[in-house]
Amino acid sequence: MTYFEAITQKISDKAVKIGVIGLGYVGLPLAVTFARNGIEVLGFEKSEKKAEAVNAAQNYISDVSGSDLLKVVNETKKLIATTDFSRIKECDAVIICVPTPLDKFKKPDMSYIENSCIDIGKNMKAGTFISLESTTYPTTTENFMKPIIERESGLQEGGDFWLCFSPERVDPGNKDYKTDNTPKVVGALGEEAKQIASALYSLAIQHLHIVSSPRIAEMVKILENTYRLINISLINELALLSGKMDIDIWEVIEAAKTKPYGFQAFYPGPGIGGHCIPLDPFYLEYIAKNYNFDLSMIHTAGAINDLMPYRMMNKIAFALNRYKKAMNGSTVLFLGVAYKPDIDDARESPALLVMEQVAKKGAKVLYHDPYIAEVTDEQGTRYTGSELTDELIAKADCVVFATNHSCFDAKRITEKACLVVDMRNVVKSVAIEDGKVFKL
Amino acid sequence: MTYFEAITQKISDKAVKIGVIGLGYVGLPLAVTFARNGIEVLGFEKSEKKAEAVNAAQNYISDVSGSDLLKVVNETKKLIATTDFSRIKECDAVIICVPTPLDKFKKPDMSYIENSCIDIGKNMKAGTFISLESTTYPTTTENFMKPIIERESGLQEGGDFWLCFSPERVDPGNKDYKTDNTPKVVGALGEEAKQIASALYSLAIQHLHIVSSPRIAEMVKILENTYRLINISLINELALLSGKMDIDIWEVIEAAKTKPYGFQAFYPGPGIGGHCIPLDPFYLEYIAKNYNFDLSMIHTAGAINDLMPYRMMNKIAFALNRYKKAMNGSTVLFLGVAYKPDIDDARESPALLVMEQVAKKGAKVLYHDPYIAEVTDEQGTRYTGSELTDELIAKADCVVFATNHSCFDAKRITEKACLVVDMRNVVKSVAIEDGKVFKL
């Protein structure tokens, strides 16, 4: 029996054992989804704390159902987490779900993928199928992963192991689309890999879209998020101009949305956040340099985005200025620090960048976020959230809506506040005192 | 009875007489739509030829139904066209549907709107409602139109006449959305104007979206088309990079489209065409200068678009080069010169710009377009379309798909051709000889 026949048989018997490297917001939902479908999953995690939490069925990812986790850990025992990467040898397939951050120079930090490939190469058995889900620049699977795994394992891609890229499409907080019902793009290297990938992911995912190569799949994910970056940057730029022209950009967007074809609405804000849109386009910008190619749209969009927190800091300063107050010495209360509404994640949140700038200019910065008890900004300054009392609102020289959590009571807050800067159109339906609310 | 009461009464009695200035691809469908709904319409047109055609019920706009035109001209006699602008005094409401081109320096040519305002101001009676549908920069209605009409008429906006901006949303060739069932954004100046606009347009349009001012409505149209410009430019830039990286951008787009939220597909091509997307964003860029504001996204997107015809010329040159042929002396056959599929309009078509460049480099340029018998490029060179015979295809050194008309038989053309440059993914489903087809 060839390696190919062996793994194919195991998948068809649902006897395949899958390793998932990285039990974060991508890996844990994926591991649970396979386990729920009766597949044995070994979750590899460098953090002992996380591995222990999983094994105690303690959920730490809001998109994972706690009861699902309980079931696959305690009841069916299909999911086990481990910090012992030598156990990769037990797995027939390994799926990598590690971060690919950017460093301070917007260069992709490939160390997580690299280390995963080394762990796999050192420990895997021949005949293993390996899939990468982490967003990265096109050609990573073929030109970056493959040589590392071949070097570490002494095995040959194609005959001894197979490679695949299948981008995660996790949208934190999305109520409709979860891991299992979000169509999944799969790009494997070679015909055998394509067949294995298709059979394997079909065990847990409802709709697969098979493309002809890993680099196509790598580009797909970047296109999706570059589309978002440039459209958010465009609307931010138009919002800034609209402010000067006495045009309410939010009203413009609502009206444009009535066009029944050829338009998709994006909304302005203090910048972009999360773990995809601020990063993914810059992987492509990085690899494009290798082809002497300047991605001017990404570059321009990135520049607009980078400036937004400063523009927002200015907006707060000039709102205070209207009341003859300086930023220095004023108290500024931020409402919402999550990077998007109704989630508990402040990673890459533009609110933090605005807070940092406002604090630098001498303001006393407070924040309230019902989902986030404390945050640390990029400079390491730690903030503890405040309770949203009437006193707190009233005593702030300026209240800033930085995230539009749906639980915010815009009417109450606007009434109690002496000055509001609204970066998210939270105050839209409230009759507002002229000059009291400054909208983006 | 006040002017306001008078016009309101006439609208409610369907006894209002509407003047439509400009009987082009916006004005004629609008005039016919009102007339179909039993409203008397006087169509004003500088071109005697067009006015005569309308009065003879000879249709020249493909989005207008010939039988509708016949009915409102010959049967109900609700639509009459005239070149006599003094008859504006017969109208209770006047709707301006004239072009707003850009000059060679991408400065808006406001002369059509200006002349319409002069014609209206000189001829209208007091109590006239005036609406502009031509795309233009925000503040045009208030700051450009109003003073001209007041000066020419001696009347006062608000009391003696009313102003409104309601952008046309005509999408030539769209089978689902026509003038009457495309939601219409309406921004009038003042409360009375808002009420009149709403009542008047409701006579013929199914869904109105009323916004608070003309400048909001002006910005809406620009946002819609700027969105398209920047997304087409992005995908063109990514297509050029993808070519260098051996990535089929068309396959990438098809895969990205499987994302069920947060993505809208745009396709690459030799540039953008038509009478909206290449123009509208630059009205905004023009007025933004007045606010010392640089619209970097529009600027960057415009630059990519401007370069596309040259890139496409290069693509053709290097495809020929593969067969050791120089552009100079080669015969290049363009298939499709319309700016989008299945329409008969070559205005601002990028195909023409590519043809111009290819001809400049010494190639013999031929074209075939089933919908367009002859075209003239920006330099005034006139081309007559050829019949698409097997001989014509075979004798061309290079066949270029410049527009993806759905009637093109990609298989036949690719088989007969010795070399194909495909800028529109026409050849996608055909088994292609390696090296014979060069895709964008």
Provide structural commentary:
2 copies of one chain form a homodimer. With 440 residues, chain A is an alpha/beta fold. Chain A folds into 2 domains: 3-212, NAD(P)-binding Rossmann-like Domain (Rossmann fold, 3-Layer(aba) Sandwich); 232-439, NAD(P)-binding Rossmann-like Domain (Rossmann fold, 3-Layer(aba) Sandwich), CATH 3.40.50. Chain A has 14 helices and 15 strands. The first copy, chain A, has an 8-stranded mixed beta sheet with strand order 3-2-1-4-5-6-7-8, with helices on both faces. Chain A has a 5-stranded parallel beta sheet with strand order 10-9-13-14-15. In chain A, strands 11-12 form a two-stranded antiparallel sheet. In chain A, helix 8 crosses helix 10 and helix 11 crosses helix 12. Chain A is elongated and about 80 Å long.
The CATH topology annotation of the largest domain in chain A reads as: Rossmann fold
| Spatial strand order of the main sheet of chain A | 3-2-1-4-5-6-7-8
The oligomeric state is: homodimer
Q: Describe the sheet with the most strands of chain A.
A: 8 strands, mixed
Q: Compute the number of structural domains of chain A.
A: 2
What is the average per-residue confidence, as pLDDT of chain A, rounded to a whole number?
Answer: 95
Give the ordered list of helices and strands of chain A. Answer: HEHEHHEEHEHEEHEHHHHEHEEEHEHEE
Uncertain regions spanning at least 5 consecutive residues of chain A:
none
Can you count the helices of chain A?
14
Return the structural class of chain A.
alpha/beta
What share of residues are in beta strands of chain A? 5-15%
Distance between the termini of chain A: 65 Å
Largest interface, and how many residues on either side? A-B, 64 and 64 residues
Q: Share of helix among residues of chain A?
A: 40-55%
Radius of gyration of chain A, in Å, reads 24 Å
Q: Which homologous superfamily in CATH is the superfamily of the largest domain in chain A?
A: NAD(P)-binding Rossmann-like Domain
Quickly give the CATH architecture of the largest domain in chain A.
Answer: 3-Layer(aba) Sandwich
Shape verdict of chain A: elongated
